[in-house]
Specification:
The protein is built from 4 helices and no strands. The chain starts with 9 loop residues before the first helix and ends in a 9-residue tail after the last helix. The protein has a single domain, classed as Arc Repressor Mutant, subunit A (Orthogonal Bundle). The longest helix is centred in the middle third of the chain and has 19 residues. With 84 residues, it is an all-alpha fold.
Length: 84
């Protein structure tokens, strides 16, 4: 007999992640309280952290000076690798 997969609304996922992050409760404890698999909740927490890291990281802000620096590095200028 095939199992049916449960699906969860994004609001529920976000709320579960918020409980883990804003309380001293473990992922396993929150999962038990919500009646979900701890591995599933851990995946949601990890995805949330990765999403936040990529949207707030200064590495993803590209300025003109950053573009110029990248061009110099690719062609070997300004990084000590060029020959005289």
């Amino acid at each position: 007999m095939a199992e049916t997969r449960r699906t969860f609304e994004q609001d529920f996922r976000d709320g579960a992640v918020r409980i883990v992050e804003e309380t001293d409760k473990s992922v396993a404890q929150v999962a038990r309280e919500l009646g979900i698999n701890a591995g599933t909740l851990a995946n949601w927490v990890n995805m949330s952290r990765k999403r936040r890291a990529t949207t707030t990281s200064p590495n993803y802000v590209l300025t003109l000076s950053g573009m110029e620096h990248g061009a110099r590095c690719r062609c070997g200028l300004g990084n000590g690798l060029h020959r005289r």
